[in-house]
User: What shape does this take?
Amino acid sequence: MDGSQLVVGVDIDDVLYDWSGQAHQLTVQAGLAGSVQAVTSWAPHQEYGCTAEQWWSVIEGCIHDGRLFGAPPIDGALEALDRLRSAGHHIHLVTARGSGGFSPYEAAVQEQTHAWVSRHGVPHDELTFTADKALVRTDYFVDDSAENVVAIRRTGSRVYLMDRPWNAHLDHPDRVQHVREFAAAVLAG
Assistant: This one.
């Protein structure tokens, strides 16, 4: 990479892909969502009024049949990444999907993620699966997890927080509503 090329880290779930929305729809289809209209926390089973085991059973079933990672990217997300790549920047997708050693479904999740990225032509130069996103060197990063944003910011990367209900508690100066806004901020320097 030359000196003018930036490494731009981008989370996938709830940044490029509406994971929480897809998981909610699948939970509705399974009859577990009750009257909940949208997920607002990292513990959706509590919002739904079911056990964590019941909710994870739905999620795991949808990993097996491919529905969890089967929806298209968020509208406009790929175009935003195209703008960054066209400007000569290095796009590094960094996701906690299928990482951390906590699930017997890690290999399946990683395979489905690679397939999703390929099927939709997601512009990128690298794809890393890691729960500790601060280990990946970036100049800029966008993520929806407050904890990730705090950790990545400590590395010196300029981090943007994708505004979601589950991160409203974090007072962070750089919030965006869509990856388009993030790309515009990176390009503006």
